[in-house]
Amino acid sequence: MKHSHLPDEFGQGIIIHLVKDKHGDISSSDNYRGITISPVISKVFEVCLLNKFGSFLESNDLQLGFKKKIGCGPGVYLLQNVTDYFSCRNSLVFMASLDASKAFDRINHEKLFAKLYERGAPHVLLVYY
Questions:
Q1: What is the pLDDT of residues 10-21, one digit of tens each?
Q2: The pTM is what?
Q3: Number of separate domains in the chain
Q4: How far apart, in whole angstroms, are the C-alpha atoms of residue 40 and residue 7?
């Protein structure tokens, strides 16, 4: 930490492919998910960092997923209230649901929002799951 350097080995791991559905098509790549086995020392280092600096890490209040002790209830409530708000004001409501589980890090969100706006969707609520 003093030298702001991590060994390259901390970022390496072994990927193991696990079958999702044992009764499904085992020749299909969609029937597998990969897990990465990381070096134990990198996990120990991560736990130490979180223990020491975890109180300084925070997420945006608008993020509803992947947070401790928050289920899907707040997201459903938000979606319902936004839809009701615009519907009660005789406004059209356009909603897109995007399963970004495999492409979340690969999508350019700015371009996606720009395309939706260009197509006449002034009020866009994008739900990630």
A1: 878 888 888 888
A2: 0.39
A3: 2
A4: 13
